[in-house]
Amino acid sequence: MKEGELFEDLDHQLKTQGYAIIDLPLSQRQLRTAQSSFKDFLTLPGETKQGIFVPESYPGIEDSIAGYVQSKRKQGSSDNKQHFHYNQVLASQFSKKPGLDPKVINFFNHAEELYHATHQTLEDVFDAFETQYSGIKSYFFPEDGLTQLYNRYIQYEFDEDNLSIAKPHLDRGGFTMAIYESKPGLRLHHFDGQEYITTNVQAHPNKAIIFPGYKLPKVMKQLGYDCPYQALAHDVIIKEIGKQIRNSTVTFLDPCIDIPVRGDPTHFAEDSQLMRHLRSL
User: Fold this and answer.
1) Which of 32, 137, 176, 214 could form an S-S bond across to 130 if both were Cys, CB 3.0 to 4.6 Å?
2) Mode of pairing for the β-strands spanning 186-191 and 148-158
3) Are 28 and 207 in contact (CB under 8 A)?
4) Residue 54 resides in a domain
5) Rounded Cα distance, 118 and 111, in Å
6) Domain assignment of residue 198, yes or no
């Protein structure tokens, strides 16, 4: 698809439903194999996993951790997961490090394959956007700097008391791309100007679901454009009862400049219009 045609398709989908379905050069087999290698990685001792970590992979950029992170569910919280952020900074520091466990090497090999595919997919998206919004690509794919793209591999653990495994929120970056889920559960909440419309979605083979984050309108404003796209609210709800495990892979693309986020504009108060809408479903 030519850049102009791709932009028209993306523009229409983002304006009318808040998200877009795009082609992804990865098969379901490749995605499942990468997730399988991640699950093997998770069987390693805690000290091995925790040793693969970069606290600030992009100097001066908030929330740019890379590597392994474990989040234990706290009282009143629905988020209990292990996840791993794979990006090029992490790869450059660890991929050739001597003495790595074979499970780490195997995971990195598959993670690198996915990284290149998701990087190319989103670069194509910004080539399309560049045809209408001159200068926007350089904010995300700088010629002389690091692209702040990372793939998050996630394993959620939950039980019958925990059906909401990710509360409604906006992502802080520029774009989010959902590329794999072992179980359905992702819900997207598009505001049409009057009310929220909730859609249950799941990525299909060779396709990805892409939607804007909180910082995309901020970047477009710096470039002098009015942004016609909204950061898209979303959550993950599991209907199954009993102890469950859910794996997913998500790509995040942040701008290469630091855009401060004051307070927490990415989560919703219980009396907000979105939360009232969700309680009515």
Assistant:
1) 137
2) unpaired
3) no
4) yes
5) 11
6) no
Rg value, the chain, Cα: 19
Give me the pLDDT at residue 265, please. Answer: 79
State CA 95 to chain mean position distance.
22
Write the pLDDT tens digit of every residue in 202-243. 888 899 999 999 999 999 999 999 999 999 999 998 877 667
Residue 162 has pLDDT above 60, yes or no: no
Domain at 46, CATH number: 2.60.120.330
Find, among 45, 258, 65, the residue nearest to 150 by Cα: 65
Confirm whether 44 is domain-assigned.
yes
Tens of pLDDT, residues 56-75: 776 656 667 889 988 755 54
Q: How far apart are alpha carbons 251 and 87 in whole angstroms?
A: 10
pLDDT at position 75, please? 44
Summarised one tens digit per residue, pLDDT across range 17-69 is 999 999 999 998 999 999 999 999 999 999 999 999 988 776 656 667 889 98
The bridge status of strand 186-191 relative to strand 233-237 is antiparallel
In this prediction, residue 72 carries a pLDDT of: 59
What is the torsion angle, in degrees rounded to the nearest 10, for the CA atoms of residue 60, residue 61, residue 65 and residue 71? Answer: 120
- As a dihedral over the C-alpha atoms of residue 110, residue 136, residue 144, residue 173, rounded to 10 degrees, the angle is -50
CA 253 – CA 58 distance, rounded (Å): 13
Range of the domain at 49: 3-156+174-183+209-229+245-263
Identity of the residue numbered 78: S
> Does the residue 197 lie in any domain?
no
Residue-averaged pLDDT of the chain: 89
